[in-house]
């Protein structure tokens, strides 16, 4: 697999994402459904957003690993949240640590939504290549 990062500017670097990722010569593409703070028994977390983000990250990492892919090869990540302000002010450091831990270079979209399933307030949807 070959990845090329397209960044006409540098300001996005501090936000832990890139403007575009071109991928060539892949052997597979994994489209991961939104992963949220749902426990192994299927119950949704009612914890604060920061705690929920930690669980969502773990769930995303688990799905990617079980499929035989690596989180470092996430090329597209969509973050759904019920409050973009809370995500940016209370959770962004956790998000940045996740990106740094895997050496990710991914295109990101952050969306504030009216609601998520049950008590959930953050969800991560990813595209991963191999």
Helices and strands in order:
Elements: E1 2-6, E2 20-24, E3 29-36, H1 49-66, E4 74-81, H2 84-102, E5 107-112, E6 122-129
Helix pairs in contact: 1-2
Salient structural properties:
60s Ribosomal Protein L30, Chain: A, 6 strands, 130 residues, RutC-like_sf, alpha+beta, Endoribonuclease L-PSP, 31% strand, two-stranded antiparallel sheet, 4-stranded mixed β-sheet, YjgF/YER057c/UK114
Report on this model:
The protein is globular. The chain has 2 helices and 6 strands, in the order βββαβαββ. The model has no long low-confidence stretch (mean pLDDT 96). It has a single domain (2-129), classed as 60s Ribosomal Protein L30, Chain: A, CATH 3.30.1330.40. Helix 1 runs parallel beside helix 2. The longest helix is centred in the C-terminal third of the chain and has 19 residues, at 84-102. By secondary structure, it is of the alpha+beta class. It starts with a strand and ends with a strand. It has a 4-stranded mixed sheet with strand order 3-6-4-5. A two-stranded antiparallel ribbon has the order 1-2.
